[in-house]
Amino acid sequence: MDDASLVALATDLADRAGAEIRAIRNRGFQVQRKADQSVVTEADRAAEAIILAGLRDALPGCTVVAEEEVAGGKITLATREFWLVDPLDGTREFTGGGDDFAVNIGLVRDGKPVLGVVGVPATGEMFGGIVGVGAWRRKDGHRTPIAARLPPAEGLTVVASRHHGDQAQLDAFLGGRTVARVVNFGSSLKFCRLAEGQADLYPRFGRTMEWDTCAPQAVLEAAGGSVETLEGLPLRYGKPGWDNPHFVCWGARPG
């Protein structure tokens, strides 16, 4: 498959997973805790099963690293090309009745995210992108191109995590910058707000895993933004244990 076909496959699987998540939410569910005390529900596992089956059926032999399989003890080694799947990013928002949770499906080549989709089951939105080609947002059946913006004269719109991160560290990082507003979001939607030109900066100082960031990083970079470590290096993939360092997401930048 070419990259356009892979994005179409991921989009279809994110749609199907999102439909299952909505159905489970509508009928009710129980909340459990994993070994690391993070929350998990039937919806996480059902959505992941749909995505894994779809990828492995369409792409026999492909490597997939998925959050709930890893939590269950499955050890998968990174290969030159592999998928990263978070079937329900923002489970806390999902269980709390919020809308900002997402389905993340992204593809890595040579340590770099190259394409991805972020589905938003509560709103029916879908974000997608191929790095070097472009990004888009689909809503109500209409798909439109999106692009990161240059920071406006009045200052930066900063997105921050609703539940995670170090406020003192965030305040220190923003010191000396002209900030117009700070808005809190859950899940990978923070990346998408930058990708569609609604925000400019997302510093992340809390823990994240590679499946949290691969798909939305691909969308943001396809839209003209960037994701860097605090040292200014690109955020790369295939790291031991799948843990990310702290990072900063930017919209478009001058020059």
Question: Would you give an account of this structure?
Answer:
- By secondary structure, this protein is an alpha+beta fold.
- The protein folds into two domains: 3-140, Fructose-1,6-Bisphosphatase, Chain A, domain 1 (2-Layer Sandwich), CATH 3.30.540.10; 156-250, D-Maltodextrin-Binding Protein, domain 2 (3-Layer(aba) Sandwich), CATH 3.40.190.80.
- Helix content is 31%, strand content 30%.
- It is built from seven helices and 14 strands.
- The chain has helices at residues 3-27, 42-58, 67-71, 91-95, 167-174, 189-195, 210-222, and strands spanning 31-33, 39-41, 64-66, 81-89, 102-109, 112-120, 125-130, 134-139, 142-146, 156-161, 179-185, 201-204, 226-229, 247-250.
- The strands form four sheets. Strands 3-4-5-6-7-8-9 form a seven-stranded mixed beta sheet, with helices on both faces. The protein has a three-stranded antiparallel beta sheet with strand order 12-14-13, covered by helices on one side. A two-stranded antiparallel ribbon has the order 1-2.
- Strand 10, helix 5 and strand 11 (179-185) form a beta-alpha-beta unit.
- Helix 1 (3-27) packs antiparallel against helix 2.
- The radius of gyration is 17 Å and the shape is globular.
- It starts with a helix and ends in a 5-residue tail after the last strand.
